[in-house]
Design goal:
With about 725 residues, the protein is of the alpha/beta class. α3 crosses α5 and α13 crosses α18. The chain is globular and about 95 Å long. Pathway: Amino-acid biosynthesis; L-proline biosynthesis; L-glutamate 5-semialdehyde from L-glutamate: step 1/2; Amino-acid biosynthesis; L-proline biosynthesis; L-glutamate 5-semialdehyde from L-glutamate: step 2/2. GO terms for molecular function: ATP binding; glutamate 5-kinase activity; glutamate-5-semialdehyde dehydrogenase activity.
């Protein structure tokens, strides 16, 4: 295998990176020989000049593929465009002023091809030479492939070149082609460089064909249309009649239509094809690493798609339609749906626990953090507790269509403000499979459609829970009321659907929440960190304080409402309160980290940051001068989730409760009480630290909005001349 020239950029190893690839791209492990077709739009810039930066990056990738033992065959367009630009310049230089005033005749395409082919090949030769790679030019015509002898010789020549790690570069020989015109005649064995690439992939027994374009892949409509979505895997039966193609390539022969036709033909012949952008500097390498980029065409693609696997938009629209069916049935029927779901969960408890245990075992084998595994596991009795929470939710007053306010606008004209479902919710959550049950039950109770995306570590748990719940929903409502998103790659498409998805609620890490907020126009509700504080005032009952502190930290350390920082009044240090609390936490196995003052005082490691969520049996301890400094500390380092004061001094307590600006503020009670079920909400979709719409544990009410219902008997505005406004509050009728 060739050695790497000094100074060559080191690109990522390919074969070793295939462990976590998408299952639909697993075939790349076996790719040895590939054909790469480079479109004219990749080779040239918008002004027709060569795109030297893109070509340089392309050649670097091919160099890397050579080093790693791949056999690379190129098909490159661009010769006609490049030749046309050069001949136009030559014509301009040789023309008189009078000549330029005459109507300009379009240049002969075959002459352009003849000039451009040598220029294009000279450029490739120069770029590859800098990388110590040898290339060879092979010009072919449609007529050549009619000869069996030619095909045999072609295979022998290419095999000889590849054995010497030479990169063959094919192009249609437009200069001597018998076509009427390079951009008009689409007949024959191949009719452009896309179909030539597909033909060569088949003829030369390639394992993969990559078609490089000026867009990310195949879209459902013109890529410039914001409603268009990237198609990850092309299914002919589904997508053939669904796609709306945009304009032809600005410079090439057929644009995306030609690429799709070539890709479909190659895939049907057993050659996998990926259409992806040639603008990104390492896309070829990413394809061979199994990354889910571009659009894949594969003969088995229809087998990978389950019947319920529909597009992001279809899923969201179906959820909205089903939610309207849910809202149309009676309150009693909606209550029965919830009770049926609760019964179904208990009836399938054994199967649910079996799938969850498989997820936990896989997570342990993969070396996931203990805190994540703790959130992943469904503890004994959890399913029963979830079912009972759903029954509590079912017994609550029906939240849909409640009249919140009645106002008489004028005589006989009554306005009602009523509660109404938001519409379609998208919930993205990590690790916790019980979250799926809570969120689904809340969606049913509030009349909302729902799309769920859980973490891959809970894939089996989420799948069985989703099946049990949707099977319990009557056909008259529709099982697609609750959609389960199974691919991470669908999330970007869903986040674009601000016309059909009404609210996104991310439940997970700060990174997850931040990424979602930055990626969508849809309103986002949720919290990122759960950095909950407990402040122990000097007036605290220390026996009570120890009990609350241990519970807040130890009861469920991975929960977002677990204590992460303990603040102690400085006067408790000489009084022995600090030592007693430290002893109690250490006895329970809690690892302690100190703030700047306590770390030296107790000789314990200093916390790397005072704004840190451990999600484990660890916490930070620091001392403060008084309640005011505790409040300042919480505002500076907290996350506005849940904070608690343990104190008997009424003034300190009221100061803390009034001034701490968090979603939940407690006095003499564990932070673990911040929970939808414990608040009597039945369940929670999450805990919001936002200040708009809903804050704290978000139950049914947080998933509702309002509508205005106006009841009249023929009133018209008519410039307000015939209306006497009363604006009188009316009693709400039961």
């Amino acid at each position: 295998m060739p050695t790497r020239p000094r100074g060559t950029k080191r690109l990522p190893e390919l074969k070793a990176a295939n462990g976590n690839m998408d299952s639909t791209r697993a075939f790349v492990r076996h790719v040895k020989r590939l054909v790469i077709k480079v479109g004219t739009a990749v080779v040239t810039r918008a002004d027709g000049r060569l795109a030297l930066g893109r070509l340089g990056a392309l050649c670097e990738q091919i160099k890397e593929l050579n080093l790693q033992g791949y056999e690379v065959i190129m098909v490159s367009s661009g010769a006609v465009g490049l030749g046309r630009q050069r001949l136009r310049y030559r014509k301009l230089v040789n023309s008189s002023f009078a000549d330029l005033q005459k109507p300009q005749v379009e240049l002969d395409g075959k002459a352009c091809a003849a000039v451009g082919q040598s220029s294009l090949m000279a450029l490739y030769d120069t770029l590859f030479s800098q990388l110590d790679v040898t290339s060879a030019q092979l010009l072919v015509t449609d007529h050549d492939f009619k000869s069996i002898d030619f095909r045999m010789q072609l295979n022998e020549t290419v095999q000889s070149l590849l054995s010497l790690t030479v990169v063959p570069i094919f192009n249609e020989n437009d200069a001597v082609s018998t076509r009427k015109a390079p951009y008009e005649d689409s007949s024959g064995i191949f009719w452009d460089n896309d179909s030539l690439a597909a033909l060569l992939a088949l003829e030369l027994k390639a394992d993969l064909l990559i078609l490089l374009s000026d867009v990310e892949g195949l879209y459902s409509g013109p890529p410039s249309d914001p409603k268009s979505r990237l198609i990850r895997t092309y299914i002919k039966e589904r997508h053939q009649g669904e796609i709306t193609f945009g304009d032809k390539s600005r410079v090439g022969r057929g644009g995306m239509t030609a690429k799709v036709n070539a890709a479909v033909n190659a895939a049907q012949a057993g050659i996998p094809v990926v259409i992806t952008s040639g603008y990104a500097p390492e896309n070829i390498l990413k394809v061979l690493q199994g990354e889910d980029i571009g659009t894949l065409f594969h003969e088995d693609a229809h087998l990978w798609v389950q019947s319920q696997d529909i597009s992001a938009r279809e899923m969201a629209v179906a959820a909205r339609e089903s939610s309207r069916n849910l809202q149309a049935i009676s309150s009693e029927d909606r209550r029965k749906v919830l009770l049926d779901i609760a019964d179904a969960l208990e009836a399938n408890q054994e199967q649910i626990m079996k799938e969850n245990e498989a997820d936990v075992a896989a997570a342990e084998k993969a070396g996931y953090e203990r805190s994540l595994i703790a959130r992943l596991a469904l503890k004994p009795g959890k399913i029963t507790n979830l079912a009972n929470s759903i029954r509590v939710l079912a017994k609550m007053e029906d939240p849909i269509g409640r009249v919140l306010k009645r106002t008489e606008l004028a005589d006989g004209l009554v306005l009602e403000k009523t509660s109404s479902p938001l519409g379609v919710l998208l919930i993205v959550f990590e690790s916790r499979p019980e979250a799926l049950v809570q969120i689904a039950s809340l969606a049913v109770r509030s009349g909302n459609g729902l799309l769920l995306k859980g973490g891959k570590e809970a894939k089996r748990s989420n799948a069985i829970l989703h099946k049990v719940i949707t099977d319990a929903i009557p056909d008259s409502i529709g099982g697609r009321l609750i959609g389960l998103v199974t691919s991470r790659e669908e999330i970007p498409d869903l986040l674009k659907l601000d016309d059909v998805i009404d609210l996104v609620i991310p439940r997970g890490s700060n990174k997850l929440v931040s990424q979602i907020k930055e990626s969508t126009k849809i309103p986002v509700l949720g919290h990122s960190d759960g950095i909950c504080h407990v402040y122990v005032d000097k007036s605290a009952n220390m026996e009570m304080a120890n009990r609350i502190i241990v519970d807040a930290k130890v009861d469920y350390p991975a929960a977002c409402n677990a204590m992460e920082t303990l603040l102690l009044h400085k006067d408790l240090v000489p009084a022995g309160g600090l030592n007693a609390i430290v002893f109690g936490l250490r006895t329970k196995g809690v690892t302690l980290y100190g703030g700047p003052k306590v770390s030296s005082m107790l000789n314990i490691p200093q916390a790397l940051s005072l704004h840190h969520e451990y999600n484990s049996m660890a916490c930070t301890i620091e001392t403060v001068d008084d309640v005011h400094q505790a409040i300042d500390h919480i505002h500076q380092y907290g996350s506005a989730h849940t904070d608690c004061i343990i104190a008997e001094d009424g003034e300190a307590v009221e100061t803390f409760l009034r001034q701490v600006d968090s979603a939940a503020v407690f006095h003499n009670a564990s932070t673990r009480f911040c929970d939808g079920a414990r608040f009597g909400l039945g369940a929670e979709v999450g805990i919001s630290t936002s200040r708009i719409h809903a804050r704290g544990p978000v139950g049914v009410e947080g998933l509702l909005t309002t509508r205005w219902i106006l009841r009249g008997n023929g009133q018209v505005v008519d410039g307000d001349k015939g209306v006497t406004y009363t604006h009188r509050d009316l009693p709400i009728q039961s």
